[in-house]
UniProtKB/TrEMBL annotation:
Superkingdom in the source lineage: Bacteria
UniProt domain SusE outer membrane protein: residue ranges: 25-132
Protein name according to UniProt: SusE outer membrane protein domain-containing protein
PROSITE patterns: PROKAR_LIPOPROTEIN
Xref: InterPro entries: SusE
Record organism: Pedobacter frigiditerrae
């Protein structure tokens, strides 16, 4: 028995020695070398005039690296400020095919963000440096460093997720807690109905820690601390902003009225209150007598004037061409406002009662555009 145990023990020791030898041999066979990638495009000192609103791209290409164990390297293009450090890059992008391809196309929109991160201001030129970094998961190598000159267009590089208007000319004054939010219509596109007076205003992306401060200067969105209001007397505007095109417009809202279909005329007018809301109290609602009964249909008509002084009329009605009269159980969606045509009867709402009422035309940035009618 003792002999058998000794024999088994010896075999175990021999097995361990053999396994360790195999592991050592295997590790000796693994080559972790990699050659540096060689950039082929774009050339060093290339100049690019950025056009973020277009489909233009800058394509980076390079010769493949070679690895000692013939594994496939993966790549990324890394950017730094002209006087910066690649250990703190301003931008990095992995190549196509999950990093294994030897090229990558970067849109002008992304390049504009990177230029902004490099400190290049709108409508100015500046330089960044870049290189291709290759790795096989164990070791890495980088290409020679290249430089690129970028010319930024007007506008903001990064579309804000939220936007507020504040300043002495605004409804909330300089108190950031009262800054009026803008309605986000889509990525980079905002709208707000608000009053402006004499003074200054600015647009900010955050009321607690703003990283963006912008203004509208002659229809162009620009980075600036503040700018003078477009009016010296109180006026109500619809402000439309598109960061994708760096453009913005002020449209003056001159009047808001209730168009009563049966009379084919505006019968009641509303006055601006605040925060995109117009009101009329104790309106003596009267339906139009007809041979077949009384007509209760109505729309809202808004008179607008653009910066060129051109006056237009916009109609706001319902989503149903031939609406029914609402009741106490009618869903609130019935009252939602939609841009409609100027026909006399189509897409009109119907008054629930022929009685005095308080009426609100609500173009609030915090909710759907709607109306509120409170009967007395």
């Amino acid at each position: 028995m003792k002999r058998t145990i000794k024999h088994l023990f010896a075999l175990g020791i021999s097995g361990l020695i053999f396994m360790q030898a195999c592991r050592k041999d295997d590790s000796d066979m693994v080559e972790t070398t990699i050659t540096a990638p060689v950039s082929t495009a774009p050339s060093n000192n290339t100049s690019v005039v950025l056009s973020p609103s277009s489909n233009a791209v800058v394509t980076f290409e390079w010769d493949q690296s070679k690895t000692g164990n013939y594994t496939s390297p993966f790549y990324k293009v890394v950017f730094a400020k002209e006087d910066g450090d690649f250990s703190k890059p301003i931008y990095a992008i992995v190549s196509t095919k999950l990093g294994y391809d030897s090229k990558v196309a970067v849109s002008h929109r992304e390049m504009n963000k990177m230029a902004y991160a490099a400190g290049i201001k709108q409508l100015e030129k500046g330089k960044v440096k870049w290189r291709i970094e290759a790795s096989n998961g164990v070791v890495g190598m980088s290409s020679a460093v290249s430089t690129m000159e970028l010319t930024r267009p007007a506008g903001i590089a990064e579309n804000p997720a939220t936007l507020f208007i504040t300043g002495t000319a605004t409804e909330g004054g300089t108190d950031l807690n009262k800054a009026l939010p803008l309605k986000r219509l889509s990525d980079g596109v905002f709208e707000v109905y608000t009053a402006l007076s004499t003074g200054n205003y600015k647009l900010i992306d955050n009321v607690t820690n703003a990283s963006l401060t912008a203004v509208i200067d002659a229809g162009v969105i620009k980075e600036a601390l503040e700018i003078a209001s477009p009016t010296t007397t109180k006026k109500v505007y619809r402000i439309n902003i598109d960061f994708n095109t760096a453009s913005a417009t002020f449209t003056e809202i001159q009047t808001v009225g209730i168009w009563v279909s049966g009379f084919n005329a505006i019968k009641y007018t509303l006055d601006y209150d605040a925060a995109g809301v117009w009101k009329a109290n104790n309106v003596a609602i009267a339906w139009k007598p007809e041979s077949w009964g009384r007509d209760e249909r109505y729309k809202f008509r808004v008179t607008e004037k653009d910066v060129a002084g051109v006056v237009t009329v916009k109609n706001w009605g319902g989503s149903v061409k031939d609406n029914v009269r609402p009741t106490l159980t009618t869903a609130l969606t019935y009252y939602l406002l939609k841009p409609v045509d100027n026909t006399q009867y189509d897409f009109a709402f119907k008054f629930a009662l022929e009685a005095p009422a308080d009426i609100e035309f609500r173009m609030s940035a915090l909710a759907d555009y709607t109306q509120k009618i409170t009967y007395k």
